Amino acid sequence: MHIMTEQTAVSTPTYPFSHRLKTWLAELRDIKWPWVVFPGFSVALLNVVIIGTIISIYASVVSVDMQSPEATAAAVANGATLIGTYASPVAQFFITILVAFWVCKRQGTAVTWYGLLIGVVSGIAAAFQVALFAGVPLSLIFDFTLLTFLPTPMLAGWIGARRSQKVLAVQQRVYLTSQAIAHAPTPQAIVNAIGQYLATANVHQIGLWEILLQGAGGRPTAVSLLAAWTAKQSESWQPGLQLTADTTASLSRLSPDASLPIRAIDLPAAEKQSWEALGARSGLLIPLVTPTGSWVGLLTVTSPASGGLSRSSEQDFVTIAAQIALVLDNLRLVAQAKETAVLRERQRLAREIHDTLAQGFTSIVMHLEAAEQALPTDPQVTERHIDQARTTARDSLAQARRVVDDLRPELLESTPFDQAIGRVVAQWAAHSGVVAEFKVTGKIRPLHPQVEVTLLRSSQEALANVRKHAQATTACVTLSYLGDTVILDVEDDGVGLAQQAAVPDGLTSGGFGLIAMRERVEQLGGELFVESELGEGTTLSISLPLESGAATE
Predict the structure, then answer these.
(1) CA 494 remoteness from chain centre
(2) In sequence order, what E strands does 442-505 have?
(3) Cys-Cys crosslink for 110: which of 27, 36, 260, 300, Cβ 3.0 to 4.6 Å?
(4) Are residue 295 and residue 366 in the same domain, yes or no?
(5) 80 with 156, same domain?
(6) Reduced 3-state DSSP string for 189-243
(7) pLDDT of residue 380
(8) What residues have CB less than 8 Å from 509, skipping those under 6 apart?
(9) pLDDT the model gives residue 239
(10) What is the reported pLDDT for 441?
(11) pLDDT tens for residues 56-81?
(12) Average pLDDT rounded to a whole number, residues 406-427
């Protein structure tokens, strides 16, 4: 079966200019001006320090070669003029880019505004520097001359802002990938998340592999594909695809603490053919290792381009590798736990059947065989054996019902517990013709599955008894959450328990039975009470701890 991911076209919404203008102005209102003013003047200060340092170095070098102080002073003045004229604007340009990048990356919002405004402040600061050191009148600076100092630093601020936007976008993609992986229920969901957020145009396929065999140092010598993401629906890998160290020697070169970039052109002929058969001319092999040093799998990112992935793209995939290893290990542990739970349940059922039904069936066979032997000569013995076989069969039927009752009801698999009880009450009322009401009091809290099963079965048996024996016209079932206790009350306005006492217990009449009900409740650390008066109806109350059930697992 091919693994494919549905490709959906995402259209970018277009907004009218007025909407974009309002958004832009709203961002301007949220600007933190200290993060504009101080970084802008810091650009000028750093520029002064750097240029001053360069001039000092230049002066030291010139003073060695010059013979007279006058010549030295003249050479230093000329050099300082040249450095200030040509080197200072260049230094300011690159310093503005770095400072704007740092501020925009730190703020994370309105980055374009921050970049442009930092450029404006640094340009104004540069104009004041010129006025201070070159003796230009301030009145001239505040004329149109000031505008000549702004375009270059504003451009530098914009470049720094754009660069920070790219870095923030990468960080956002890595964050979204991490969130999706953390909640991924399957290996396929993991690779889908990686492909959705991290795959660039140069990424062809992403594979998640489980380790089948390991060699020296724990290195995988055989891996099998768990799940795959592909950029093209027509080309996809299949689960179960295997790679071995014999045909893919790169596996034996893997290290648990480093990824392995590969280029098919640099590989031996056999391995080159193996990778090109998968549509990969280059790729990245990333070991998935838990913090304890256990290999749990392998992540492969392949590309049809021979040049391979960019360094930043490789780093993005390596960044999430540790989390993938943990999630994959957790999924493995969950699967093992489920398998263990299934095995335990099978063993429990086997013990139940062996201890009850198998012995009962054996007894029935023995009695029937004895009856068959005695049939020609002694009818009374024959009848006695048949009666015993019949009694044993009824007991075995009751035991079989108990075993079935221990399984989680289908109703609880598809319906929340309180709604499941409500459906039981509604269905019972519809079939019995008795007016029934269901109420829930207290804050609903999650219950242990065994508690849910016990309360559901108890409500069913209690209502069945009301229908059979109480001759009631109304009934009420109440589910109460009180602190660390859950209580189930079943009340009716029937004839009371005195008349019910003559009726055989439900154990042999196809129901849960009061005795079995009490045993189950007590096994979970709860209590069962029955209150009744002749002609006043009956109330059955079951109280169970919310955390009960765990101790019996």
Answers:
(1) 53
(2) 474-482, 485-492
(3) 27
(4) no
(5) yes
(6) HHHHHHHHHHCCCCCCEEEEEEEEEECHHHCEEEEEEEEEEECCCCCCCCCCCEE
(7) 86
(8) none
(9) 83
(10) 93
(11) 888 887 776 666 677 777 777 777 77
(12) 80
1 occurs within a structural domain: no
Cβ contacts of 427 within 8 Å, gap of 6 or more: none
Question: Which residues constitute the domain of residue 343?
Answer: 334-405
Q: Are residues 151 and 243 in the same domain?
A: no
CA distance 454 to 417: 11
Give the end of a domain, one of 155, 174, 193.
Answer: 174
Q: Are 4 and 82 in contact (CB under 8 A)?
A: no
Backbone angles phi, psi at 287, to 5 degrees: -70, 140
Among 221-225, 380-384, 411-415, 541-545, the range scoring the smallest mean pLDDT is 411-415
Q: What is the pLDDT of residue 11?
A: 40
CB within 8 Å of 263: residues ≥ 6 apart = 281, 282, 306, 307, 308
**Is 299 in the same domain as 241?**
yes
pLDDT band at 406; cut points 50, 70, 90: low
Of 405, 430, 447, the one marking the end of a domain is 405
What are the structure tokens assigned to 130, written together? 């010129």
Q: Is residue 327 part of a domain?
A: no
CATH code (residue 346): 1.20.5
Answering whether pTM is above 0.70, one says no
Whether residues 155 and 189 fall in one domain: no
Residue 142: pLDDT band with limits 50, 70, 90: low
DSSP letter assigned to residue 251:
G
Residue with tokens 């549509």: 279
Q: How many domains is the chain built from?
A: 4
* Inter-CA distances, 261 with 25, 55, 143, 266, 290, Å: 46, 46, 58, 11, 21
- CATH (domain of 511): 3.30.565.10
Same structural domain for residues 450 and 390? Answer: no
Indicate whether 18 pLDDT > 70: no
Burial of 548 (0-12, 13-18, 19+ CB in 10 A): buried
One domain, residues 188 and 294:
yes
The answer to whether residues 118 and 88 belong to one domain is yes
